[in-house]
Amino acid sequence: MSRAFKRTVFGLSVLLVAFAFLGGLGPSGVRAGSQADGAYPEMEVYSEVLKKIQTDYVVDPNVDKVTVGALHGLLESLDSDSSYLSPDEYKSYKQHQNEGVAQIGINVSKRYGYATVVSVEPGSPARQQIHDGDIIEAIEGHSTREMSLAMIRLLLEGKPGTTVTFSVVRPRQAEPERITLTRTNPPVPPLAEQEYENSSILYLKPVVISKERVQAIENRLHAMQKDGNKKIVLDLRDVTDGDETQGLRLANFFLQSGTIATLSGQKFPLQTFNADSGKFVTAAPLVVLVNHGTSGPAELVAAAILDHKRGDVVGDRTFGEGSVQKTMELPDGSALILSIAKYASPSGKRIQDEAVTPSVVVASAPETEEQGANADKGTRADEQLNKALELLKQKNG
Fold first, then answer.
1. Angle at 124 between CA 196 and CA 237, to 5 degrees
2. What is the mean pLDDT of residues 4-15?
């Protein structure tokens, strides 16, 4: 066995031990309470696999590449937000964080091993060509299956005016479609508002769960009572960006008491976020709209409303995103981005693991690109919004 290969096996073994002490390798892996029983057999298995690859594979393998691939897979087996970054990747990642960047307007995660489009931002370069749920097979010729989520997001971003080419896989499409888009910094659309049923129903779509946008919603809810509106549709479809703290704040507008969410991890102290009666705004009948593009802070809102039976949640199952990451630098210049805590709904369901299933399931219509107040007059009916209005008409204000 070569000296380089021995170093590789030893390095991987050290990492495996570290993972054991961090809390395991997944649902069936090594747990912190059983290091003595589980860690060494796991190390022996990995060592034996690497030896077999070097001695029996069809050609002499690039062991460094094999090891990096194994580490990518190891982290991604935990959840989509956990990543391994090689020394070169981590160097690029740190440089990228200090640069102003432009985007193409898609929010991505990893599902089924590849980059998956969670949502597409209104007014972005991608809006006319990319859809929620599209699989990005490759970026600039590099397979997303072999990249961490952190590097996928890094490659999609760049200087304003530059282009990025990627391959998209869609259902009922034989070959991947190559798409080239120009990176821009489009402004975030304003809070979308509309009134229905003789102004008795107020429709609000925040687009992003930011401090400013949540404040705008609070102001509108206070004004609503003067305007005579008594019922609310909160459209969280394709709402991905934002801050979890603001998601908790938004949910509090509709909840006078009780738990909104919890946050916990193996070594992360349990945090319970309870509704503050002083921040409660309205008890008006409420329907929340969600779809597969509802992610992160928006899911906190939907889950709290659903669990407390504060209102109906209408649409599709949400994406499932809600964790806190920590970056851990390793001695060789590489790094781990590891999920250390996850948000859970009031009933205890971890949002990242189970997402949010609506109380009233209404499938999305893929052909409709813009929904709710932003809908084109010529598109087919928005069945999810129609269902929300139907439910609210049956409720007393």
1. 40
2. 45
When pLDDT is cut at 50, 70 and 90, the band that residue 60 belongs to is confident
What is the pTM for the complete model shown?
Answer: 0.82
Backbone φ and ψ for 377, nearest 5 degrees, come out as -65, -25
Burial bucket for residue 111 (CB in 10 Å: 0-12, 13-18, 19+) = middle
Distance in angstroms (rounded) separating the CA atoms of residues 223 and 242: 24
Q: In a 3-state reduction of DSSP, which class is residue 133?
A: coil
Residue 215 identity (one-letter amino acid): Q
**Which residues does 153 contact at the CB level (< 8 Å), separation at least 6?**
108
Q: What number is the average pLDDT over the span 291-299?
A: 96
For the chain, give the percent of residues with pLDDT over 70: 84
**Confidence at residue 46, expressed as pLDDT on a 0 to 100 scale:** 76
Q: Rounded to whole angstroms, how far apart are CA atoms 282 and 256?
A: 9
CA atoms in the 13 A half-sphere facing the CB of 115: 26
Model confidence pLDDT, tens digit, residues 191-228: 999 999 999 999 999 999 999 999 999 999 999 877 76
How far is CA 288 from its chain centroid? 19
Could you count the other beta carbons within 10 Å of the beta carbon of residue 333?
A: 13
Q: Are 69 and 77 in contact (CB under 8 A)?
A: no
In whole angstroms, what is the distance from residue 385 CA to residue 356 CA?
A: 18
Residue given tokens 């960006």 in the structure block: 241
Write the DSSP assignment of 221-281 as a string of letters.
Answer: HHHHHHHT--EEEEE-TT---B-HHHHHHHHHTT-SSSEEEEEE-SSS--EEEEPPGGG--
Crossing angle between the packed helical segments 211-227 and 244-252, to the nearest 10 degrees: 10
Look at residue 380 in the predicted model and tell me its pLDDT: 59
Q: How many CB atoms lie under 10 A from the CB of residue 146? A: 15
Task: Check: CB of residue 281 under 8 Å from CB of residue 256.
Answer: no
Q: Whose structure tokens read 């860690």?
A: 39
